[in-house]
Amino acid sequence: MSSAAYPASVLASLEPAGDDRGLWVNNSAPKAMLEDERSHNEEAAEELLRRALLDDSSSVAVSLEVGGLPVSDAVTVIFHGRRDLGTLQTYIACGSRGAGTTVAASELLRVPCDLDLAEAEDREEAERLYLAQATALRDALVGADVVLDVWREPLGELAGAEVAVDHSLELPVSLPAHRLLPTALVATESQLLVTPVCGARTLAEGRPPMGIACAQQEVTRVYPLADDPERCVTDFLRAAADHARTLAERLEQQEASVERFLELNEGG
């Protein structure tokens, strides 16, 4: 697993026109690495915080690249702050988005796990909180993607031989929780979809609560991230079969009711 890097002090502004507005990634500062040794990134982190927290512009974004993922390959986290709106939100895009690129709004997955630096009394404390919270999110993404990779084999064995990786932001099914990654596994034969999900809370509380969502048409279930994938897939397929059987019985009963109603009217 390769280490994640901060392509440093990445400034961004919303494009001025069009419905598909996105974030423009500026090339203006050196890179800072997320490492255990604070001395390696102290100067770069200070510059990053200066840009992110004290810039006079109304819109600032800082990106965090997470690479070496077994299923997603690479994703880019974008922390986007708007002084005029008083918002600081987290987005995730597929792939490695370097400085000088534009990320369209249609490529951004909103993840409700936002930075919270309000408790910082000075810049040094803000730096410490920022690095801790960004690291927590990075670790959550890495862990979720590794678990998704573990699901690939049992999903193929139990729900269909072919398993595809889907990076679509818009899924054909509704999920009961927020998506954590713009990545899903899809058993193409049964159309069973599996993707990491999370609960909404600030990163000041640490890693977000995470799970694995299974969805197929009208049936959805969320399982603990550390649960056994084979057991989960078996449980979900049983639940989906029960739902299909119940639906078939309901339709049969409805058809019988309609038939009896029509017979009553014909007899009259």
Task: Characterise this structure.
By secondary structure, this protein is of the alpha+beta class. It folds into two domains: 5-139, no CATH class; 151-252, no CATH class. The protein contains three helices and 14 strands. The strands form four sheets. Strands 9, 10, 11, 12, 13 and 14 form a six-stranded antiparallel β-sheet that branches. Helix 1 packs across helix 2. The radius of gyration is 23 Å and the shape is elongated. The termini are far apart. Mean pLDDT is 79; it is low at 1-21, 25-42 and 48-56.
Overall 3D shape: elongated
N-to-C SSE series? EEEHEEEEEHEEEEEEH
Tell me about the largest β-sheet: 6 strands, antiparallel
What is the helix fraction of residues, given as a range?
Answer: 25-40%
Mean pLDDT rating: 79
End-to-end separation: 76 Å
How many helices? The count is: 3
Helix-strand makeup class: alpha+beta
Low-confidence stretches: 1-21, 25-42, 48-56
Work out the strand percent.
25-35%
* Total separate domains: 2
Number of strands: 14
**Rg from alpha-carbon coordinates:** 23 Å
